[in-house]
Write a structure and sequence with these properties.
The chain is mainly β. It contains no helices and 12 strands. β11 and β12 (118-123) form a beta hairpin. The structure holds fe (ii) ion (FE2).
């Protein structure tokens, strides 16, 4: 699962995840989809890089050093934990906190998707 990639349709906004294989034959709105590149360094005021704290056998994940806004038109849509053999995704909604718990899986990767600022990631040690 570590080879997972995310693609977005620039026309309608659909997002897909490709677990394995190649995207060349996949289109949306009759057009190729754009690969989302996850950022891990955030220089802007609003922070997006996920952070985590290990608590026993779980990690508590938050998005942003200063918690990211969760407003109707600007929010974190989902957070995913991707490891060698598993993907766990949590859908979030405006007005909710970004705080999410996942099982602790060493060498996994946390992804967070902002509806305005795209895909972000943090590796779990
Ligand atoms: Fe954002």
């Amino acid at each position: 699962m570590k080879n997972i990639s995310f693609y977005k349709c620039l026309n309608c906004g659909n997002i897909i995840e490709v677990i394995d294989g190649d995207i060349n034959n996949i289109t949306c709105c009759s057009k190729p989809m754009e690969k989302l590149i996850a950022n891990s360094v955030d220089a802007s005021f609003e922070k997006h890089v996920p952070s985590y704290e290990k608590v026993e056998d779980e990690i508590v994940v938050k998005v942003g050093e200063v918690e990211h806004p969760m407003e109707k038109d600007h929010y974190i849509m989902w957070i995913a934990l991707v490891s060698e053999n598993r993907i766990t995704k949590v859908k979030l909604y405006p007005e909710q906190a970004t705080t999410t718990r996942f099982p602790y899986i060493p060498k996994s990767t946390i992804y967070a998707y902002c509806n305005k600022h795209g895909l972000w990631k943090k590796d779990v040690e």
